[in-house]
Design a protein that fits this description.
Blueprint: H1 29-52, H2 56-67, H3 80-90, H4 95-121, H5 126-137, H6 151-166, H7 173-181, H8 190-198, H9 204-229, H10 240-249, H11 253-261, H12 264-268, H13 277-282, H14 285-296, H15 309-330
Helix pairs in contact: 1-4, 1-5, 3-4, 4-5, 4-6, 4-15, 5-15, 6-7, 7-9, 8-9
């Protein structure tokens, strides 16, 4: 008897953005939200223990400075999440609970959108595995700071942007970038992402107006905030050499980055040329992100890298899936 044909890893299903095919089976909304909510709640407990409890007095002082426009650059211009928390506080919600409720909601939303994004590229059960992987890495991003409430919403906005681009709704980036800049200026990289994935795939006259409009909207908010709120001194050095030196000599980076990227270091780049073009182009954001935060931030704070998960996670799971198929084929 002849052996049954074993599928070639290269013939594994491709996402709908690169090839036509039947829609993938999506996880039902209620179980997904329940799972994301449970994981987000656990993450908030970890954040409460690791960050809120030991830094409560610093948090109160920092929040007060931001909402009274006496804070430091750049956080003074990242007003959205602080304003939302202040609104809850004025409704009678305790300070820490107000910030954790926002963290819970934004984290749960980001996990749901990230799972929907993984469903574009992978069949079950891989999106669920990706959901767990993202949740497991979150506690490692809650280290080495006392109050950084803008990161969960920033992550959620990036997840939403990836889904919008995959669905061809590029113009939605314009209000999304304007809105996101009220929270954190990192979203100004989203027009760059849009240009990376559209360049050569669409006529320039189709994608370039979106890129320029999104950049204009984001920078209008960016400079508008500085005009309205006035100048504020930085709370750390703005010298590139300061950040380069700190990042070069901080040995904690050598265990923080492997914890964050984990299986991506093994499978994210394995047979990279086989991956869908959208993800290969989007992966150019990874060195760009690292270069930026080596120069203006501390890489030991891996919270900066959460917006990269929509790139690294599908690449990792696709690589791992193909590796398992190849290993199974080789053992027969």
């Amino acid at each position: 008897m002849t052996e049954a044909a074993v599928p070639d890893p290269a013939s594994l299903p491709t996402p709908l953005s690169d090839a036509a095919g039947a829609p993938r089976s999506a996880l039902p909304a209620r179980p997904l939200w329940a799972a994301a909510g449970g994981l987000a709640a656990l993450a908030c407990v970890a954040h409460y223990l690791l960050v809120d409890v030991p830094n409560r007095l610093q948090q109160l002082d920092w929040h007060r400075q931001i909402v009274t426009n006496t804070g430091y650059y750049p956080d003074q211009y990242r007003i959205l999440t602080y304003a939302l928390a202040e609104g809850l506080i004025r409704l009678g919600v305790p300070f820490t609970l107000a910030h954790e409720l926002l963290r819970f909601g934004f984290t749960a939303g980001a996990l749901v959108l990230l799972t929907r994004w993984l469903e574009v590229w992978l069949p079950r059960p891989w999106p669920g595995i990706g959901l767990l992987m993202a949740a497991l890495v979150l506690p490692s991003t809650y280290l080495f700071y006392h109050l950084q409430p803008t990161d969960p919403l920033n992550w959620l906005i990036f997840c939403a942007a990836f889904l919008l681009l995959e669905r061809g709704r590029d113009w939605a980036l314009v209000p999304l970038v304007a809105f996101g800049t009220l929270n954190r200026e990192t979203v100004l990289l989203l027009p760059v992402l849009q240009a990376l994935v559209r360049w050569g795939r669409q006529p320039v006259r189709r994608w370039l107006p979106v890129t320029l409009s999104a950049l204009a909207a984001g920078f209008a908010v960016y400079f508008g905030l500085r005009l309205v709120l006035g100048p504020h001194p930085p709370y750390v050095s703005e010298s590139l050499r300061h950040y380069w030196r700190r990042n070069l000599h901080d040995l904690r980076i050598w265990w923080q980055l492997p914890i964050f990227f984990n299986l991506t270091l093994l499978f994210g780049w394995w047979r990279f040329s086989r991956r869908p073009e959208f993800l290969r182009r989007a992966a150019l954001m990874v060195p760009l992100f690292l270069a930026i935060y080596v120069s203006v931030g501390y890489l030991v704070e891996t919270r900066y890298l959460l917006p990269l998960l929509p790139v690294t996670l599908p690449l990792t799971l696709l690589g791992l899936r193909e590796w398992l198929v190849a290993r199974s084929t080789g053992s027969r």
